[in-house]
């Protein structure tokens, strides 16, 4: 029967089908849960009771007035700082591995390999690296003669536990960012660099006036991934420290999980999730505004 229809009718049916099915899946698994999350954020639902009493803005007032909830965001700052360093290193290695370097494909694979490893496996791996008594890092520092540093509790100090955890993320994701930058660098015509060399431009001038403008949008993309990753980090602190010591490494996502599944306060956890979503949107909007103004 379908073959008997006019060609234009068949074409419209196919187009509508290809559009309707993904849209239906998007509405079912993305927009509807998001709207339900917003609705639950105005209730005191405990996750099991059929009663969902409407309490208005009380959950949001609790999020912003309780320093134990909203103050957890400061722990994510370390991931943002290390993420910026991660992008700088990624650009540096991308430029090096985009040159005529012998064995560059091997080094590309070596740097990208950590990204394909399982996050939980990486966390357990670095648990042995940062162990205070028998960790390979402290053993290595002691061998080099840094006795004061060889006894450091990298995961037990409130001062830099978050930077220790963020450094693991740097090791794991830097290769991924490098590959993205490398693809962007390979799209730049080599004629531009040849012309700049003839005009007497050195390597730094070529980087500033040719490389950076051509990869500016890629930098914006990677910073987008860095900011969202820094605000939504969960697996590393959950596996390695479980938020310790004394809650110093607890992230906002961990706080949401514990509020929902440990304290059975799904209404407050939903409000926290909405606040996180809005916070991500605001931060990314500011970032996009600043980058676009700098690009202009």
TrEMBL record:
Residues 76-287 form the ABC transmembrane type-1 domain. InterPro entries: ABC_transporter_permease, MetI-like, MetI-like_sf. CDD domains: TM_PBP2. Its main location: membrane. GO terms for biological process: transmembrane transport. It is found in: Cell membrane. The chain crosses the membrane at residues 12-32, 77-97, 109-130, 160-184, 263-286. Keywords: Cell membrane, Membrane, Sugar transport, Transmembrane, Transmembrane helix, Transport. It is a multi-pass membrane protein. Belongs to the binding-protein-dependent transport system permease family. This is Multiple sugar transport system permease protein. It comes from Paenibacillus phyllosphaerae.
């Amino acid at each position: 029967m379908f073959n008997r229809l006019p060609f234009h009718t068949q074409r419209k049916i196919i187009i509508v089908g290809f559009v309707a099915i993904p849209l239906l899946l998007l509405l079912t698994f993305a927009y509807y849960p998001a709207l339900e999350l917003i609705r639950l954020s105005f209730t005191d639902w405990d996750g099991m009771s059929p009663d969902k009493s409407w309490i208005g803005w009380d959950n949001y007032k609790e999020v912003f007035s309780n320093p134990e909830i909203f103050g957890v965001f400061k722990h994510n700052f370390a991931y943002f700082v290390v993420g910026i360093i991660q992008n700088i290193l990624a650009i540096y290695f991308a430029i090096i591995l985009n040159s005529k370097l012998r064995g560059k494909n091997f080094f590309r694979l070596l740097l990208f390999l950590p990204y394909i490893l399982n996050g939980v496996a990486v966390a357990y791996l670095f648990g042995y690296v940062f162990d205070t008594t028998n960790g390979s890092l402290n053993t290595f520092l002691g061998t080099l003669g840094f006795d004061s540093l060889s006894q450091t509790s990298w995961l037990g100090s409130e001062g830099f536990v978050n930077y220790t955890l963020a450094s693991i993320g740097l090791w794991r994701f830097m290769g991924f960012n490098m590959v993205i930058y490398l693809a962007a660098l390979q799209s730049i015509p080599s004629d531009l660099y040849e012309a700049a060399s003839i005009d007497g431009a050195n390597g730094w001038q070529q980087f500033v006036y040719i490389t950076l403008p051509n990869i500016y949008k890629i930098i914006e993309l990677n910073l987008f991934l860095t900011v969202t990753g820094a605000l939504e980090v969960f697996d590393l602190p959950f596996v390695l420290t479980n938020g310790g010591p004394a809650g110093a490494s607890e992230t906002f996502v961990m706080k949401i999980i514990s509020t929902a599944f440990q304290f059975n306060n799904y209404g407050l956890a939903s409000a926290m999730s909405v606040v996180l979503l809005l916070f991500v949107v605001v931060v990314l909007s500011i970032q996009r505004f600043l980058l676009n103004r700098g690009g202009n």
